[in-house]
Design the sequence.
């Protein structure tokens, strides 16, 4: 009897470990099966590595939501390649915003799941994958506006959002004219944040501005920003340059107002004005902020339907992270269809322009006419600012 109980206990423990191995840290069901036929269905595994815990978890969740929504829609009927019908299996892993974890996750995704495409939403992770993605033959779906990502000559990288270089001029012109020439820069310590600062600061100075303070914030460690902000505000800046994930960026803006700062905010494109408002509860605290135009305020053809479905599924408004990942998943599927191939990344990549051309009108949450020779999607840059408690478009002409 004791031996029978012991065998039952061992079997039960093995079953628990088996079940837990089929669910990743985000609660997303995954499969350890490789791309191919699973339970009689042809399956293509799509990889994702992003921050699903820690300070950037909300940001990571939003990027993943867009992919999940696209995958679920596509799987309703599947998609046809060379006469065979395929469905997608999204395998998501948490990297806590750490590039070394992104690399480890990608190797696992390729080895265990044979993923031809791996999405990652931070430049540090992209750089880590570019070390070996060509050798391992997988496309990086790079969600970062860092221009260097597509300047490295990596033949299997797609930069999804537009380069942040397009924001330097409108952000500088608007805030300098409205508030004045003195800038305090407090970017995040991430590679992306530091690269953004290295682009903005010299441009600000070239336009006649003065940088009165420079420091950095580590959102993985810092939750109270009063000391950091006090040091910056003591230099009497007209404008604060801040950014990173929307939630902590909103906290910085709120605490700056509490310390008496009345100037403007240049918001790095990773943070979104509408998501920041969810934290501040009002645009009044963000008066004079300039950033990317919120997706819900955009006029692309696929936006109304996407917003409606997203609200119904997630009970909140979608941001650009969700929108860009949603449309990108559809583009990659159209590229597979045009390529007649679901597993060779090089062949799929060669047909991305075909995928863009074939994208249905109602899926154009963003209008992306083409992909440039370096692998960056060509997208019209749109900018919005907070004026009198509302988002207004800023003319880039």
Sequence:
């Amino acid at each position: 009897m004791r031996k029978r109980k012991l065998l039952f206990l061992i079997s039960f423990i093995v079953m628990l470990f088996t079940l837990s191995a089929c669910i990743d840290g985000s609660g997303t069901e995954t499969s350890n099966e490789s791309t191919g036929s699973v339970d009689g269905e042809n399956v293509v595994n799509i990889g994702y590595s992003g921050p699903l815990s820690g300070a950037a978890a909300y940001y990571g969740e939003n990027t993943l939501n867009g992919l999940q929504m696209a995958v679920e829609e596509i799987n309703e009927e599947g998609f046809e390649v060379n006469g065979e019908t395929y469905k997608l299996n999204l395998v998501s892993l948490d990297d806590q915003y750490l590039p070394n974890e992104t690399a480890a996750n990608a190797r696992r995704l390729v080895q265990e799941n044979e993923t031809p495409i791996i999405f990652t939403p931070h430049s540090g992770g992209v750089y880590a994958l570019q070390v070996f993605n060509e050798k391992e033959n997988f496309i990086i779906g790079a969600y970062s506006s860092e221009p260097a990502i597509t300047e490295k000559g990596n033949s299997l990288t797609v930069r999804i959002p537009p380069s942040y270089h397009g924001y330097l001029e409108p952000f500088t012109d608007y805030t300098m004219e409205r508030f004045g020439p003195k800038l305090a820069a407090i970017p995040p310590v991430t590679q992306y944040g530091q690269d953004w600062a290295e682009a903005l600061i010299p441009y600000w100075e070239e336009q006649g501005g003065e940088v009165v303070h420079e420091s950095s914030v580590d959102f993985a460690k810092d939750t109270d920003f009063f000391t950091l902000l006090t040091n910056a505000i003591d230099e009497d800046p007209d404008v604060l340059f801040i950014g990173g994930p929307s939630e902590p960026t909103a906290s910085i803006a709120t605490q700056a107002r509490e310390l008496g700062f009345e100037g403007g905010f240049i918001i790095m494109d990773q943070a979104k004005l509408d998501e920041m408002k969810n934290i501040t509860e009002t645009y009044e605290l963000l008066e004079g902020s300039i950033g990317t135009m919120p997706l819900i305020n955009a006029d692309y053809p696929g936006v109304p339907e996407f917003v409606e479905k997203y609200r119904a599924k997630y009970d909140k408004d979608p941001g650009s992270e969700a929108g860009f990942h949603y449309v990108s998943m559809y583009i990659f599927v159209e590229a597979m269809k045009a390529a007649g191939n679901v597993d060779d990344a090089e062949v799929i990549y060669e047909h991305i322009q075909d995928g863009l051309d074939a994208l249905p009108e109602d899926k154009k949450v963003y209008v992306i006419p083409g992909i440039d020779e370096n692998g960056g999607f060509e997208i019209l840059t749109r900018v919005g600012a907070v004026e009198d408690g509302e988002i207004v478009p800023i003319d880039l002409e």
